[in-house]
Amino acid sequence: MPKQPKQPKQPGPRGGGDSKLRVVFLHPDLGLGGAEKLIVEAATALKEKGHDVKIYTSHYDRKRCFEGTKDLDVHVAGDFLPRSLFGQFHIVFALLRAIWLSFYACLHSGAQVFVTDQIAVYNICLRMLCSQPIVFYCHFPDQLLTQRPSFFKYLYRLPFDYLEELGTGVADSVLVNSEFTASVFRKTFRWLKNTRLEVVYPAIALPPLKSIQKRSRTGPSTFVSINRYERKKNIALVLHALAAIRNLLAKKDDQHGAKLVIAGGYDARVKENVEVYNELRTLAYDTYGFSEKQVTFMRSFSDSEKASLISTAAAVLYTPEGEHFGIVPIEAMAYQTPVIAINSGGPKETVEHKETGFLCSTDATEWARYMMELMKDPSKPDTMGKKGRKRVERLFSAEAFQSKFHKAVTTTEYRSSSWVCMHEWM
């Protein structure tokens, strides 16, 4: 009887979570956003477990990144490709950069498992090129993050929406960052309604209590807003709220009011960042007439500066509406600082109303009243902050995140059905 040919070994994780793997992350821009922080935390956690971890990205600037990236093996490919053409077709060029990065990573990384996020087209390219397992982390459906003011824009986006759903569907495992995102996922990707989703909350490394700076109980209260300079972050709301406080107190004296620090990720290459930053300065200094002592703007700060801002604030103001998760409220509570956020999306799961912060509408006067509540009782930020710290320790610890993420990466296996599914869809 002729000897049967030996079957090639199937790549990918086998035999549980003890085997060491070559794990490769694909991420578009390793900057200073919440998605980037999650990727850095996940990569660091896997590295600490003994896995060989690499991050492949289309752009990486060591002067504008999280400190943790400097201890990771980061590879850049495709940064020579433009981001747009005369300020247009951003999504087209984002996909071109993603395709280039996918091909490069397949050829050079030697991955046993891929971890992707943000751009689902990565998954299509990887599935066409190799049979390694793919773990896709869905922060939020990308198609819901764009405006479609015209029928032409609607038609223009249709094929990209299709590619996003297809790319998400061919992943071997799909993780989401909150129950809110899971519910939106099922409503948005109707073809994927039976896809098994696992909620893996983003997390942060808890700072030691002794390292947390104490906030002052005298003088003006300082409030901090931390967000990228983007319109969807609705940062102008904090300026409207500060103006409402001034009106409610009927005083402009700095010693009886509040101070505001607006800090955010800023990239001079991104037109929207530049525009929003300038618009906010105009609103603060020209429209409302605040002084630079009352309102301070910061662009792209260090981790230590961020820690100082949060820990000494009376509250962190988190203004995005319908945010899929939002890591900033978690960071604030970890530093024993209350959070004021809009009562929608992820903050509904993370912030406990009137216990660790306040959840409210988009009405600036409502925000002002909650801010004044913290201003009038200097002990309240400390009391709420301590409750917030305990909540983070219980629900959003780095240990819980690392355990879930590690399990997903080490147990996910290649599904041949995903390849069949892709062919059927195409």
TrEMBL record:
Residue ranges of every copy of the Glycosyltransferase subfamily 4-like N-terminal domain listed in the record: 33-204
GO-annotated cellular components: endoplasmic reticulum membrane
Domain Glycosyl transferase family, chain residue ranges per copy: 214-391
Keywords attached to this entry: Endoplasmic reticulum, Glycosyltransferase, Membrane, Transferase, Transmembrane, Transmembrane helix
EC class name: transferase
Pfam name, any one: Glycos_transf_1
Topological relation to the membrane, as annotated: Single-pass membrane protein
GO MF, one example: GDP-Man:Man(1)GlcNAc(2)-PP-Dol alpha-1,3-mannosyltransferase activity
Subcellular localization(s) per the UniProt record: Endoplasmic reticulum membrane
Catalytic reaction(s) noted: an alpha-D-Man-(1->3)-beta-D-Man-(1->4)-beta-D-GlcNAc-(1->4)-alpha-D-GlcNAc-diphospho-di-trans,poly-cis-dolichol + GDP-alpha-D-mannose = an alpha-D-Man-(1->3)-[alpha-D-Man-(1->6)]-beta-D-Man-(1->4)-beta-D-GlcNAc-(1->4)-alpha-D-GlcNAc-diphospho-di-trans,poly-cis-dolichol + GDP + H(+); a beta-D-Man-(1->4)-beta-D-GlcNAc-(1->4)-alpha-D-GlcNAc-diphospho-di-trans,poly-cis-dolichol + GDP-alpha-D-mannose = an alpha-D-Man-(1->3)-beta-D-Man-(1->4)-beta-D-GlcNAc-(1->4)-alpha-D-GlcNAc-diphospho-di-trans,poly-cis-dolichol + GDP + H(+)
EC assignment: 2.4.1.132, 2.4.1.257
Start and end residues of each stretch annotated as Disordered: 1-20
Pathway(s) this gene product operates in, as recorded in its UniProt entry: Protein modification; protein glycosylation
Repeat recorded as keyword: no
Free-text function comment from the UniProt entry: Mannosylates Man(2)GlcNAc(2)-dolichol diphosphate and Man(1)GlcNAc(2)-dolichol diphosphate to form Man(3)GlcNAc(2)-dolichol diphosphate.
Stated family: Belongs to the glycosyltransferase group 1 family.
PANTHER family referenced in this protein's UniProt entry, alphabetically: ALPHA-1,3/1,6-MANNOSYLTRANSFERASE ALG2 (PTHR45918), ALPHA-1,3_1,6-MANNOSYLTRANSFERASE ALG2 (PTHR45918:SF1)
Protein name according to UniProt: Alpha-1,3/1,6-mannosyltransferase ALG2
